User: Fold this.
Amino acid sequence: MAIDERTLFDSSEITVSMGPQHPSTHGVLQVKLKLDGERVLDAECVIGYLHRGVEKLGENQTYGQFVPTLDRMDYIAAVSNCLGYCEAVEQLLEVEAPPRAQYVRVILTELNRISSHLLWLATHAIDIGAMTVLLYCFREREEVLKIFENYCGARLTTHMFRIGGLQYELYEGFEEQVRTFIDDFPTKIDEYETLLTQNRIWVGRTRGVGVLTKEDAIDIGVTGPCLRAAGLDWDIRKARPYAVYPEFDFDVPVGEHGDTYDRYLVRLEEMRQSVRIIRQAVDAIPDGPIRAKVGKILKPAPGDVYHSIEAPKGELGYYVVSDGTTEPYRVRVRPPSYVNLQALRQMVVGHMVADVVAVIGTLDIVLGEIDR
Assistant:
């Protein structure tokens, strides 16, 4: 941390720069903190260190060429990135992925939700000082990544979907490998809870920290687990259903206090609900083709569409404009990490410097998605 010496001796307030090279900012995020001792008086987020112009790239590539680029936004949830964009373009083309592709998409996306939440819990816990949880979470996340690697050959920037369906047919043993994981995983979540949920240090560092009320969350535009932990039952999988989610029975976990502790509990329960969805989907995968007939050259009719999905971090939306050519006229992304980060200032003012680390972790941000 660098101290601004110009303000050091003029008053009791000092300005401290946390990041952009700081392990607890989860990427190249700079937070300018105005402090009175160790108490936060104000906070300003500075982003843009990782900007890559992803949206402009999408306007200079064909619809199909742009899909792999999306893996690099929220690289922890690459599967969700591609699903949202593929479904948006499919709406422009007025085509629908075959039922078999829809079911497999849901399975892979929910596995990705579990993988994303596991990485969140691992890094969030170690930020606060719980080393063992990281080892446990990476143990289970490895099993998910093995499924991804067997399917598409990649573990992180997974490219699984095509506009109109899937990239590959399922490999032999896919269903059995998925069932083995979901049969074992709920007991592992119980282990995380044994380590943390009643741990007095964990409770002391998270309960009452970073409170975000339901009204403030709505005003800021916060979505995902952060919104549901504030008490609002809003999940796009149920509120504006897509893919084949209406065919599955699952609950939307909701918190009461909107603090860091509730966001932890909500994400744990979301992993349990993902297991429910995967179990129903893997037992009912229909036969048939894996891709609709969309042609090799895509030229949607002129028009525009906004389509959003429930990504692990919240509402991930794509606004795509077609002018009738092979390349989108406009591509704009509504990334949840970018919008949710706006709540950081409100959540940390009045807390201690150490609590800033806990609040950044509980937002579950990825800078590749924020800067794009």
Remarks:
- Residues 99-128 form the longest helix (30 residues).
